[in-house]
Amino acid sequence: MSKLLLRNHAPDAAGRVHHVTPQSAGWEHVGFDLYRLDPGQTVSGSDPGRESCLVFVSGKGDAMAGREEWSGLGERTSPFEDKRPYAIYVPQGAGWQVRATTALELAVCTAPGHGGGLPVRLIRPEDVAASVRGAGSNTRHVFDILPETKPADSLLVVEVVTPPGNWSSYPPHKHDLDDGTAETLLEETYYHRIDPPQGFAFQRVYTDDRSLDEAMAVEDGDLVMVPRGYHPVGVAHGYTGYYLNVMAGPRRAWHFNTAPEHRWLMRAS
């Protein structure tokens, strides 16, 4: 099995399913944890050097971060409902805690903080911009949770829903070089869900010289790490794909480079 693919499995005693750190991934910026909590179960965290974005993928919970508290966060029972998520931005050094009031799927996205003094911020569904990208079998639906236009030190966080049989992160693009406005260096994780859950998708991660070239069959709840290279996703007919992207790098901007041999697809659409 590819070292870039982390399979879904039962949560541990703390409710954690996936745990990615810069050390475990062999990179410098992105961290990601996925929790599946039972009602009444609590998870907390604090890191003096890293900021966090807590994403309520599904279910409801009460939360605190810094000196702020909220109750009843979460409006969807599945990421496949046509509803935007709740999220919380937590700057470096601030503590946070989430208590599940229903079964709760919580993503904890982290990256280096830069001491910018940003406040804790609740990101409500109405704060999340929705858009449609692509056309035809390349159509996908995007929820920008923490785009570069919103305050953060390093993190970029987005959800994407891909209709049955469609492609996403396509035409293949990459962001692994720091080249001004042409391209930025961003590590990335993909947390995948599939509806119905017995379905599957495919993701390929590859570089121009093919020194990295991995093709992975992705099932519901799996996680894919993208250290560099192109990373398109195709979803099987009859199934809808969802993924939560976390990106971070030395510069907080999303500039990507489409594979030269596939640029004709952009002109044809």
From TrEMBL:
Alphabetical GO biological process terms: inositol catabolic process
SUPFAM superfamilies: RmlC-like cupins (SSF51182)
Pfam families: KduI
Single GO MF descriptor: glucuronate isomerase activity
The keyword Secreted belongs to this UniProt entry's keyword annotation: no
Record key words, sorted: Isomerase, Plasmid
Annotated TM spans: none
The keyword Transmembrane is annotated on this UniProt entry: no
Residues forming coiled coils: none
NCBIfam families: myo_inos_iolB
Protein name: 5-deoxy-glucuronate isomerase
Lineage of origin: Bacteria, Pseudomonadati, Pseudomonadota, Alphaproteobacteria, Rhodospirillales
